[in-house]
Amino acid sequence: MGEWKASLKRLKDRVLRRGADQPVKSLNNEPYYPFDLSENFYIRYRCEACDSMTEAPKGDDAPYTECGDCGGTKLLMTRGLDWCLSHEQEFWRDFKTTNDIKVPKEARKWLVGQERPMARELLRTRRWIYKLKMKQDALRNTPIVKIKDLEHTLGKPVQDREMIELDKKTYRVHFLGDDKNALLELGNFMKENPGPYVLRISEPGLGKTLASKIIREEVEPLYKEAEIELTDVLTLKNPNDDQRPLAVQVPCHAVQGGGCLAPRIVQQAERGAIAEQKQKQQFIYSLLMILLIFGAGLMFTGLFIMGLYVMQVGFIAAWFQYSAGYLGYIVGGSTLLFVPLFILMIGNSRIFQTNRADMLETPFPIVQHDGKPKYVLDATITDDASLVGSIQWNAYGNTQGLTNPMYKRVIAGLVHRGHDQILDIDETKNLSHHGAVKMLSIMEDGESIIRNSGSGGGTEAPGILAIQTADKVPADFMLIANGNMDLIHDPNSILNVIKAFFDRFNYGDAIYFEKYIDANFANYLKIVQVVADETSRFRLHPMEKEGVQRVIEYMRERSENNKQLKIMFRAVIKVVLTGFEIAYGEKRTLTTGADIERAINEFIDSVPEQEQKEELKHRAPFKIVQSTGSAEGRVNGLAVSTDRSGSPVAGHTFPVVAVVLDADRENGGDGDFVVTGEVKEEASWVQDSIKTVRTVIRQLYGIDLKKHRYTHISYAQQKDVEGPSAGVAMTLAVMSRLGDPRIKDPSKRVPIPIRQDVAVTGTIELLPHPTDPLNVQVGAIGGVSYKIKGAADAGIKHVIIPQSNFDHTLTQQEYPAIVFGADSILGYFDLIRADQENIEAFIEAMETLKAPKAETSEEIDVWSAERAKQKAEAMKE
Fold first, then answer.
1. Which range, of 79-93, 141-155, 529-543, 589-603, averages the lowest pLDDT?
2. What is the pTM of this model?
3. For residue 360, what are the contacts with CB-CB under 8 A and spacing of at least 6?
């Protein structure tokens, strides 16, 4: 009875809530998705009849059966991010393909695993907005003074942005666009407040470019909220020195919606210049017409007089005897007539053309913002002139009419166009050393002179150093520079060569973008949405749930820590595309988990991986690896090849052979400890392992391999073996010759055969085992999955790895060999020795440690715990 009343009360509350708090919204026939990861809601119900939507409050899992708008009963249920995060098992149960997922549109929701770096960057961005706000408020509250009055008070002329002292206070002068008034900014605000500058550092493909996209999306509201006004810059002709153009700042009101002042100033100046030019042209035209009329009059007068003489004395006499009376009129009149006509015909295109802007000495905008500023400028450049500006060179010099005047050839750099904005350099390594040196003073002062650069853009030509702006152009910006880890590690990188450039980022922050994320369900959902978006972006066929889960396991495997995932989205995109190509080649419209598995195993190897695999395949017929039976003093070791960056590319197997003989002291012999096939450098990892092996054997057996025995360890068919994981193989090979160290009487110890269908890897740690002080622990190694694959390729059936790798590196994927874990050298020894009668039973027990594939984080923990429990029970047997 109580349950019935409670159900009735919930139904009543829902009806009231739907009528009051949950208004019906139209979806405008948007596509239907069972899961919406773009918004933080619980459940939405969509009516197929009227296309209306109703939201259920968080925690209300009882299904709605009727539309609150039209009463329709056909409702489509969409579960939002809040529901998915609280229903992990149900999500994996109901999620079928990537077509079920609606992905977010905001770039910030796409960034996976970089919450901490982005939080640090947001702090610097807000400080940048605060700095602009404080600077702008200081300018707005500054009184306007007349430049003439200021110069009269100081007793000297002043320049724009000049520092002056007035009434025992320091001011910076800011000329307004009319060149008659100026603002006095209290203090030296700009020079005392550089930055902030942010350097993003990470391995490639971890989201630095996506972070720039996030900044572009989110910075505009911050600018508008703070009412930041940008600044335009105009260049003017310098009446005192034509080689040093003047530069003035003009505020732009585009942020508040008004028009920028710079275009209006230029238009007004052009109208005034055109009017003045028209007056000059009208005067010239009037003068030419007067001369033309006067010349025509003189010419006709001379012709009239000549006609009178001809009628009286004849043509010949008039021409030779009386020409002085009329020839002057004709010559002077024709000159005054034809010269103006020639000027009007030939020079009309230039003298009387009033609409050519290049002919007008008007202000020229070099930095101008339109009605919708970008706020974030892409400064990924390849030449210095684009970055710090230049003055355009012209082969005709300053010849009037053949080139623009000097002040109209000033080209503002990105640092000037990005004044009071954010500059984003996606590839810092493209910045030249010379450009970085130029940036030092700009990043410190927030302004710079624009000067002519040489033809190469990297050096100034000595003969034209005087060609530069007379005034410094403002260049106060927030710099965000992206770079890979080679900028930090490469001694020849720009950050290491020019330390001062790296030091400038102390005004902001150097942020490391992380390459691992926790393997939890919230991050699984982000991987799901990434895969769904890539299938949509490339217009691929959908991918089924098993394919997405294999992608997640692939990221877990590459992290070498089953509690984390490696951020490697370029590789993930390659897997998604390759899986689609496999399905498309087989004329299927759904990418399956098998397609993704095949893509990972066969088609996405890098060039170094392909090269190593081809080399191993080529050398396979000559390998002497034994994968069956047993042998004394011979252990199959595992190694991994790496590329130049140190990343693993392929695993391979090789035999480690040990020969231990008594030192023949009676015949003058002596003990020795020789290892061949390894790297000889004293500081190498393998040399440390050799010393560790000698110490471990002395601890277990009480003998010194160099003094009491003649010992030779060979890495058969190997050269320059390097790495700490060779220590276990060497130790086991020697132990096979010496026998079981737990037998106290040395005379009763006999050599122990080693199983050849087993390969080992691990590094010896000189730490006593918790349960046996004489035993030593085995530490974790890298490249586990590559080594297991390399062992399987050599025909090895079983692989022993350190227990820490067994617990924290292995994932749920199917490995090509049976994997065991051991935490001590004696644990390895018991697993690999071939004389134990219960070893096959132990292997059989270990082979049963297979759990059903887990789909939730809780199931993964249960799976791992159950596997560890079964292993412990098998060890007891």
1. 141-155
2. 0.76
3. 269, 270, 273, 274, 277
